[in-house]
């Protein structure tokens, strides 16, 4: 199994232009992944977890409305980090530790690249650094467990 993407550029663009709908879609995709996980359907679990993470990625890359609260922005980044952990755990469950490590590395890189954009919002910049640290291999052991049912909203 390899680390692959599911959303095409047009879908990503639409998600970035419609972040409210994208947040709903992110949550629904995560719920579908969890349902497939309960059914022990690893292929669909990984696919839907990947789609959820890609949707979360589109959201964090979207231009923020001036009315977007810091809380909403923070929740988007937290969801991105949580979905990274969820997808990486699903790859681990399926025996593809290389893909799991790539998911962590890609997510860390994305978050580090976005951190300077929040230099005027120290709470968000600090949150991003905390998420990056939490996604590092030294942060915690990554057990091969099936009970990783993180709730993302």
How would you sum up this structure in a few lines?
With 153 residues, this protein is mainly α. Helix content is 68%, strand content 0%.
From the structure above, extract its key features:
153 residues; mainly alpha; Serine Threonine Protein Phosphatase 5, Tetratricopeptide repeat; 68% helix
Explain this structure.
This protein has helices at 9-17, 19-38, 42-61, 70-93, 97-114, 122-134. With 153 residues, it is mainly alpha-helical. The protein has a single domain (9-134), classed as Serine Threonine Protein Phosphatase 5, Tetratricopeptide repeat, CATH 1.25.40. Helix 1 (9-17) packs across helix 3. It is globular. It starts with 8 loop residues before the first helix and ends in a 19-residue tail after the last helix. The model is unreliable at 142-150 (pLDDT under 50).
Present the secondary structure layout.
Layout: H1 9-17, H2 19-38, H3 42-61, H4 70-93, H5 97-114, H6 122-134
Helix pairs in contact: 1-3, 2-3, 3-4, 4-5, 4-6, 5-6
């Amino acid at each position: 199994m390899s680390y692959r993407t599911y959303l095409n550029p047009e879908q990503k663009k639409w998600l970035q232009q419609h972040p409210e709908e994208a947040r709903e879609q992110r949550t629904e995709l995560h719920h579908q992944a969890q349902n497939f996980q309960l059914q022990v359907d690893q292929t669909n679990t990984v696919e839907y977890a990947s789609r959820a993470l890609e949707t979360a990625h589109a959201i964090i890359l979207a231009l923020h409305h001036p009315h977007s609260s810091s809380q909403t922005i923070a929740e988007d980044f937290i969801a991105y980090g949580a979905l990274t952990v969820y997808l990486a755990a699903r790859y681990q469950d399926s025996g593809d530790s290389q893909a799991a490590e790539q998911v962590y590395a890609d997510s860390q890189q994305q978050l580090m690249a976005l951190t300077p954009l929040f230099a005027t919002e120290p709470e968000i910049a600090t949150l991003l650094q905390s998420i990056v640290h939490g996604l590092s291999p030294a942060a915690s052991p990554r057990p091969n467990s099936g009970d990783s049912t993180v709730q993302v909203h």
